[in-house]
């Protein structure tokens, strides 16, 4: 068996664990933010109507990669529209995408709805209530979301590890090895499971995440106001400066501890507690260019209408609507880009399109998590009517208001504004 990590990286003293839980929960009771999903689950622990959609499930899925302030409005509209598992199971993907439009990472909404269908059709309408079952049985529910639902909605004493918890735990225990590595993540899960309060697991987990979101923030943590500073190894180290040259019995061996910063990147005094956590450098996003064209015609009442087409049902922005678009090779000349786009439009319209007739509008940049996307935007006003080929992907003409209400991505809204 691998040797246990040195004591400074562990919570091995039961009295300290107890004190930390008490201090954190007392702070949470005093200072927690009033968020809509908290109102619904307060005092809940599985006693509520099992037909209702668990608030924490919806909020946790929406909060993945998304700020709280952005999520609140989406969350309220979602819960109003689909308050029960049954209602969500009956929704169409189109409705889900419309409500999700602008929130990003669209597969999240789709999988939430698929999971509700599964609960209703295969699990007799009963949500699984342990982290293990939630993760095993529901699509789109990973280890973190399963732990959050099980502890907050059903009172299971199980820990959670998200980005905020990673930061707090790495600082509490001076973990400076790559915090995205599986070995470190496993240690953090062990730690979260040791720490979680047995009688108030949901509140404890929310408190730890709340601490990371409001006090132990990435760049300028408010250590002076922190309810657990007396348990924080990074804070002590900041106060007392560099560790002694000769490590004490509690300290790590130099250079060979799997949880300490690598010997090549030692503690930097000026960074203080923000020495932790550390992550291996991210790969830069992939650059992509896409030509897109806003086709405009006069509708039957004389108001302008625009053609939108539906993206494939899997992959990036699956099932969303967009102006006819075509991925481009990186180093094409402008003239060639136009020609390729004109050929592509011809396919939609079933009639020749002159490349010269396309009006260049400008370039719009949108950053997805892993793609740096440049949309090269053109427009084309049509005189006569156009018959769309029903054998191609779904497409439709929409007015400006209909475009805004459709399931279109934030990137397409930027194209629209251009
Ligand atoms: Fe984070 Fe500072 Fe609190 Fe430590 S003392 S947990 S670094 S806010």
TrEMBL record:
InterPro entries: DNA_glycosylase, Endonuclease-III-like_CS2, Endonuclease3_FeS-loop_motif, HhH-GPD_domain, HhH_base_excis_C, HhH_motif, MIG/MutY, MutY_C. It is found in: Mitochondrion; Nucleus. Its cofactor is [4Fe-4S] cluster. One of its GO terms (biological process) is base-excision repair. It comes from the Eukaryota. SMART domains: ENDO3c (SM00478), FES (SM00525). Residues 62-214 form the HhH-GPD domain. It is an enzyme of class 3 (hydrolase). One of its GO terms (cellular component) is mitochondrion. Keywords: 4Fe-4S, DNA damage, DNA repair, Glycosidase, Hydrolase, Iron, Iron-sulfur, Metal-binding, Mitochondrion, Nucleus. One of its GO terms (molecular function) is adenine/guanine mispair binding. SUPFAM superfamilies: DNA-glycosylase, Nudix. Binds 1 [4Fe-4S] cluster. It catalyses: Hydrolyzes free adenine bases from 7,8-dihydro-8-oxoguanine:adenine mismatched double-stranded DNA, leaving an apurinic site. CDD domains: ENDO3c, NUDIX_DNA_Glycosylase_C-MutY. Its EC number is 3.2.2.31. Belongs to the Nth/MutY family. Involved in oxidative DNA damage repair. Initiates repair of A*oxoG to C*G by removing the inappropriately paired adenine base from the DNA backbone. Possesses both adenine and 2-OH-A DNA glycosylase activities. This is Adenine DNA glycosylase. It comes from Pteruthius melanotis. The lineage of its organism: Eukaryota, Metazoa, Chordata, Craniata, Vertebrata. The gene is Mutyh.
